[in-house]
Specification:
Layout: H1 14-28, H2 35-42, H3 46-52, H4 56-66, H5 68-85, H6 87-102, H7 109-117, H8 122-149, H9 158-175, H10 189-202
Helix pairs in contact: 1-2, 1-4, 2-3, 4-7, 4-8, 5-6, 5-8, 6-8, 6-9, 6-10, 7-8, 8-9
Length: 206
């Protein structure tokens, strides 16, 4: 049985604490907010927060596991299925999933924190790479290899192909955070993913 502090409400559980932590990290950076600050924002006891998440890095790792890592695992499953049937449709589906994730601020919260603070806190970056980037890279490389074997794609450098496929999602993340403006039009994730897929498969030449 889980023991909660007196007066605990379901909306003050682990997910609520992570939401409050990410909000503070976005406002003040990763280093400045303390466990006490996060507990006050969440409306719970500091000891409860420390019991769940002994370190702030543990908070980000938990957030990665319930958001970005699940997306990476979904990409891996999607590419395995598509490799046997239709590699091109699989890549289009992956691009759509990536952009739907990036445009969802809750799903992309961990990614945004890691991108902002990963250089200063390499443990965060290493965890994110192992649980998200490496899984996605392997999955996409496998899908591209299957497409080459089936004659759907021409032989290409898998690392270069991964950067071509993932690069636009990283760009969108930057444009929607660091370089965002109040007058930016909302992104239609599915339509944008289809436009990118068209560029990737057909290029710019008429």
């Amino acid at each position: 049985m889980t023991h909660h502090p007196a007066g605990f409400r379901p909306d003050e559980g682990p997910l609520h604490i992570l939401d409050c932590a990410v909000a503070l990290f976005a406002e003040e950076g990763f280093e400045r907010p303390s466990h006490r600050d996060i507990a006050q924002r969440a409306g719970v006891a500091e000891t409860y927060v420390r019991t769940l998440y002994p370190t702030k890095a543990a908070m980000i790792e938990a957030l990665v596991e319930i958001s970005s890592a699940q997306i990476a695992d979904a990409v891996a499953g999607l590419t395995r299925a598509a490799a046997r049937r239709d590699p091109e449709a699989g890549l289009r589906a992956v691009l759509t999933l990536l952009f739907e994730t990036i445009t969802d601020r809750e799903l992309s919260a961990a990614t945004r924190v890691v991108m902002a603070e990963g250089a200063r806190f390499p443990g965060l970056a290493h965890h994110y790479r192992a649980r998200v980037i490496d899984i996605g890279h392997t999955a996409l490389a496998g899908l591209i290899a299957a497409g080459v074997e089936q004659g759907v794609f021409r032989p290409v450098n898998p690392d270069a192909a991964n950067r071509v496929l993932i690069g636009p999602a990283v760009t969108q993340l930057l444009m929607s955070t660091v370089f965002a403006r109040a007058d930016d039009a909302p992104l239609d994730a599915r339509a944008f993913a289809n436009d990118l897929a068209d560029l990737i498969f057909n290029g710019l030449k008429a």
